[in-house]
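Re: beginner question about structure tokens

> Can someone show what the tokenized structure looks like for a real chain? I only ever see the sequence side.

Sure, here's an example I had lying around. Input first:
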Amino acid sequence: MPHARRGKALMKKHRLRGYNKPKATPKHKTKSHMVLAKKGHTVKLIRFGQQGKKIGTLSGTAGKPKKGESARMKAKRKSFKARHAKNIAKGVMSAAYWADKVKW
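And the corresponding structure tokens:
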């Protein structure tokens, strides 16, 4: 199947708004988000993020930096980015890139 048709079929099936636009998946068993990643002619459905982790809580993900944020949250974010730096650098076709962008 040509890439464009495959992408459109996946968009329709998963009710996505377009390429490289992440969507929360609250009913998925293990992953909290998905995105239909596209780079050049390559299209790939990527699921990422641990289900049940709340953004901005000590037991969850760090979320976006906030004014007056605790040192523990800053350390948590820094640790995630350092641990996954190699995979984040792979770009839009990696789950780590999207987790970094959406959840951290």
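Each token stands for a local structural state, so reading them left to right follows the chain. Strands lie at 23-24, 31-39, 42-50.
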